[in-house]
Amino acid sequence: MIDTVFLSQDVLPTLNKGLLLSLGLIIPAATLGFACGVMLGCLRTFGPRWLRRLGDAYTALLRGVPLAVQLMMIYFALPKLGIYFEPYGAALTSFTLCTAAYQSEYIRGALLSIRQGQIKAAQALGFTTLQTIIWIVIPQAARRALPGCGNEIIYLIKYSSLAYLVTCMELMGHGKALASDTFRFTEVFLTMGLYYLGMVTLATWLLHWLERRYHIPGFGAR
Amino acid sequence: MKVSDDIVLRIEGISKSLSGKPILEDCTLAVRRGELKVLIGPSGAGKSTLLQCIDCLIQPDSGDIWLEGERLERKNTRKLCDYRAQVGMIFQDFNLFDHLTAEENVAIALRKVRGMDRRAAKARAMEELGRVGLARRALLYPAQLSGGQKQRVAIARALAMDPKVILLDEPTSALDPELVGEVLAVIRDLARGGMTMIMATHQMEFARALATEILFMERGRIIEQGAPETLLAEGSTTRTRDFCTRLLEMG
Q1: What CATH topology corresponds to A4-213?
Q2: Window A:110-129, CB contacts with B under 8 Å
Q3: ipTM of this predicted structure
Q4: Is the terminal CB of chain B with fewer CB neighbours within 10 Å at N or C?
């Protein structure tokens, strides 16, 4: 029933090539997006009013427009303004910008959840504002934000499949090409689905491990 | 109780309004070394605001503060932090740092504000926790401690900074009745040891027994002040005595 020759000779080698590029998109986009998200979240919480407004507007725009549209704009519309991107560069830029907007929202929520009383207590002990943020607010906010931020990374793994829209040949791109060439959609897409499922499962385990590693009594149930 | 003549903390003419409504009006007081001043008065009288204004956690609109004769420049951030590090503050709802153990709660300011190294800070933290009877709870997180234990950790955290004066904002009001005693016992020991303190409280028996002076606040003003035996004397017609009688009738 299962055509093992087709699977091992065509599907797996092709998808593996795509997988490599997918990981090459997901890992830097997740890392950069998270770092930018933390900065954006801090600015939107503690920054001066005009910066807060600017950050809010950025987030509203990036969350309000479908990612596919943003990707097309970066790849097809920006060249009209003289800004050119390779397919890979366009995908990475668009994913980073988008994931940063979502991450900033999780970070902002976590920063706001720290009780004012603890900030007062730190000030009463003689902490400066910066020391209070570094030693009291961020360690707690990071723990509170972890589940949300992890969720966003799992989304990113899946929406990385949009990169094929701008001819960036990652997992989805390679799989789609192979399926069109051979008309064996079932095998190809079923296997591709398992590839994504595998990546998400791995990420879930990793995030659970992180949560357990940094667990502290009083921050959610174990 | 050793009460000497030198004034540790003096505030003069502290006023504060919030959205146009006056919360504190022209509050003046001076605390001598070793004194325990007790602030009493109805809820909303401004006791908590006054204590937070003294530590500049709420910036007063006007008025001056002197610590050991030196006037505080409130606008100077470094001097303000330096001042706060010398004035202990105990809150009604403890405000321990949730992500740190009891010992780290006490040690962190020693390390980050006083610049002590990790080992010295830890040793000092353990010493202070021992002083409030919690040496064996050093490795527990705030979520694993009872209310009384949390408040004692908060006291140890303040004591570790060698404060010149400690401000206590209703330290037992958020506690279950059976836990009030353990916290009051610690404060009593401090008072007997000569610690300078200003404390807002509704514990009248405690105030009567230990206060050097009682300050009665109402509508943002200190309207009466004097030794407990004078203000609470049988047959005296002070607002303080009136208030305390009503407290006792209720409770």
Answers
A1: MetI-like fold (1.10.3720)
A2: 115, 117-118, 120-128
A3: 0.89
A4: C
